[in-house]
Fold each of these.
Amino acid sequence: MARRGPLRWWCAGRDEDGRTSQDDACARTYWGVSLSDTKIRIGTRGSQLALAQASEVRARLMAAHDLPEDAFSIDVISTSGDRILDRPLSEVGGKGLFTKEIEAALLDDRIDLAVHSSKDMATGLPDGLEISAFLPREDVRDVFIGRAAKTIAELPEGATIGSASLRRQAMLKRMRPDLDVIIFRGNVQTRLRKLEEGQADGTLLAMAGLNRMDMQHLATEILDPEVFPPAPGQGAICIESRIGDERVKRLVEAISDRPTTIALTAERAFLAELDGSCRTPIAAHARIAGDGTLSLHGVILTPDGSEMHETRREGVVEDAELIGRLAGRTVLEAAGPGFFDGWAG
Ligand SMILES: NCc1[nH]cc(CCC(=O)O)c1CC(=O)O
């Protein structure tokens, strides 16, 4: 892959007297390469949540490597998922929608690393790219934001709930078959505006996103992940980069979180085993207990919630991938061959 010039890295270095200067004389040597004029380009979507996540990555990298803010640029890339707002994701082509254009920028060497919500990432990445780090996981739970009532249980008969997530729709329908779920696409701000306009009596969002935008006060009910398990990867920011880009690899290694990486390995293996896309309601939640045991809760449902298969599996963290795969196989077997027919389309 073509690389831009020498491996130099812009750095507002400090000389011995603490003065800040930017010339080569002050450039520190970083992993044997001189720090000079090249910024680390962070690619991200442009939503408020995406920008909050990109800033968090930048802040962690600055702290881990003692770098100034302007050693980085945050480059906003618009994705088809941001532009197509009138159809559910499952109809327009699934998970790749929020990542395709950003991955193209990585492959073209227009950015150096991409910041994503892990739950928006397909299990198969384009050739040449890898997930090089998972950040420490935020709250994994879903929340209900209600207008007609504070909790799902208290909603009036036949209330309308806005959501674009098949998983949330299926689990809601399972709890309350009388509810009417309508498509709510768009970023968090768009969905909240639709709710305010009265287009629905409530919506469901991830606590993690609200926390990152300092909007946690909007939640009227926090849902128990045992009863309402999250999407695989929910609450975890990941960094995607080019395979073989040693500079980025070493840069992000310092902010990678091991427990999150292990949990996400299990959840994403579960998803991969089910060949999960946005067309399949799938939930998965992996945790590491105090004694170091990894446990995974995996669920699949029909979109109307009428049928659900779940499994729980435990093991050692080294078996994260295997635990996810076996859990996937277990629910597939329980569901039987006809489960995905008819609606998986
Ligand atoms: N598909 C949108 C999306 N992707 C990740 C999050 C939340 C943040 C996270 O899970 O890390 C959201 C919004 C939501 O579901 O409320």
Amino acid sequence: MSASRALLSSPHGGASRTFTRAPTRLAAASIPFARCGALRARTAILSSPAATVPVTSSEPKRRISRSVSDSAPLAKPAVLVAEKLGEAGLDVLRQFADVECAYGMSPAELLAKVAQFDALIVRSGTKVTREVLEAGRGRLRVVGRAGVGIDNVDLQAATEAGCLVVNAPTANTVAAAEHGIALLACMARNVSQADAALKAGKWQRAKYVGVSLVGKTLAIMGFGKVGSEVARRAKGLGMHVIAHDPYAPADKARAIGAELVSFEEAIAKADFISLHMPLTPATSKVFNDESFGKMKTGVRIINVARGGVIDEDALVRALDSGKVAQAALDVFTVEPPAKDSKLVLHENVTVTPHLGASTVEAQVGVLATINVPMWM
Ligand SMILES: O=C(O)[C@H](O)COP(=O)(O)O
């Protein structure tokens, strides 16, 4: 498969187009979790808003009719929250569900626990494997992915187990785009390196001369939701923005002032390359020795998408040779990466621990958007 065909659009666009029209706008702030939980006791049919379509194909099977006379209160559903989410969102969830927050569980702990819950809410750090879904069979009805990427959930196994998977395709878009811009600027001006040096008592003004962004060419690889928001912001910084995405409409790019080009042209022309495609078998390690070889010497790379789209050993080689001058990475093939990772420890690499979606606002938004009780 050619590199061009291999690239899909952003996880913040591609995944939702592939699997779902997803619960994008559930009026989360005004009526979060409406139509759910305790309300079931007096609700005839739990139909969902038209815009809400789960990621997995199976419809909620237990959405049964109840007459008003058959209105004995139902027990609240039990929801296991496996990763840290916004407290304000959790408070709302608690009105409709018995919520247990168990952060940092090992895979074995999750396996032992999951069968006691009607729903499981995760971010990207929890692997919802076939084993987990099998362990939950009989009770677990919903997996809420409080974010975009669903590469950590075995969708096939979920479908077979009759378990819905619901994601939040837009609530963290701006957060991820802002983090991409933050990394771009920090990398160009050596902020993390200079900060560490100064804290170690070194005043090194000559060592940390940066490069300017204005007038430079930025290639956005994957022009979905996050990619296009990064493009908008980069235009504001005076950058020349080109983009590659085989599925993005040219008029969408044009409206932002970006030019859609081929994969080869994008990587060959760019001073900075920002990655925004989902991790799929087709995009795995699409940035490798061959593609680094086609880039300008001194190119700088930002990745807030998924670590697996880069061959990390090849990136270390490209950094060592100077082909890639710097990289700013929020995501890694294995998270957390090994403590002695050559990539993480490389002096020309700026790293953050998958913080793209980690803003107060986004973490309330994703929880409200997936609206887990509504699916029970
Ligand atoms: O897929 C996503 O939504 C982002 O990578 C953020 O992941 P997170 O929910 O684990 O922060």
